[in-house]
């Protein structure tokens, strides 16, 4: 089974980007490197931290903002749970969410899952592309959503239509240029149908 072990964000201000990663506790799986091709608007993806309770969401959002992130969607309850969306200085979008609407203990900055949410032109076509490269589907809802199995500690992969991903993040779907994201996986390097760059996974950071 193929899986994603690391992500690399490309930034014109690596220190500022790294500060947000450190604050969110993801530096072991998300690295930062300088540069990257020009990019405008929505880059097509979001990184999601799934945590156990609303208090953890608030703690993670506060830490990210203190490290330099800006709030795109304030934390609030919805029919599916509780969550917020922030953006780091490099433009990467972070969704922090819990399926629970009530706290069950003291708030911490712990989270259970790290998920890469890719906005794609055709969920079915992208899903087939990843399956052909050894990824196993965990859940799939036609052309609306697909989620892949991940080993413990790895980054989960999920697919949305691009417009749906942008709406979920609270931004316009318009965007062009580089995704400024490199996906590190235990699969051969390739560029997928939506232009995302997949690299041979480096050793984990930290």
Task: Describe the protein's architecture and organization.
This protein has 206 residues and is of the alpha/beta class. It has a single domain (4-200), classed as 2,3-Dihydroxybiphenyl 1,2-Dioxygenase, domain 1. Helix content is 20%, strand content 39%. It is built from four helices and 15 strands. Strands 5-6-7-4-8-11-10-9 form an eight-stranded mixed beta sheet, with helices on both faces. The model has no long low-confidence stretch (mean pLDDT 93).
H-E string: EHEEEHEEEEHEEEHEEEE
Share in β-strands: 35-45%
Instruction: Summarize the main sheet.
Output: 8 strands, mixed
| SS field, number of helical segments | 4
Please tell me the CATH architecture by its name: Roll
C-alpha termini separation: 25 Å
Specify Rg, calculated over alpha carbons. Answer: 16 Å
Tally the beta strands.
Answer: 15
Oligomer: single chain
CATH topology: 2,3-Dihydroxybiphenyl 1,2-Dioxygenase, domain 1
User: What's the overall geometry?
Assistant: globular
Average of per-residue pLDDT values: 93
Outline the low-pLDDT stretches.
Answer: none
Number of spatially distinct domains: 1
If strands are numbered along the chain, what order do they take across the biggest sheet? Answer: 5-6-7-4-8-11-10-9
> What is the level 1 CATH name?
Alpha Beta
Helix/strand structural class: alpha/beta
The helix content, as a percent range, equals 10-25%
CATH homologous superfamily caption? 2,3-Dihydroxybiphenyl 1,2-Dioxygenase, domain 1
Protein name: Glyoxalase-like domain protein
Organism: Occultella aeris
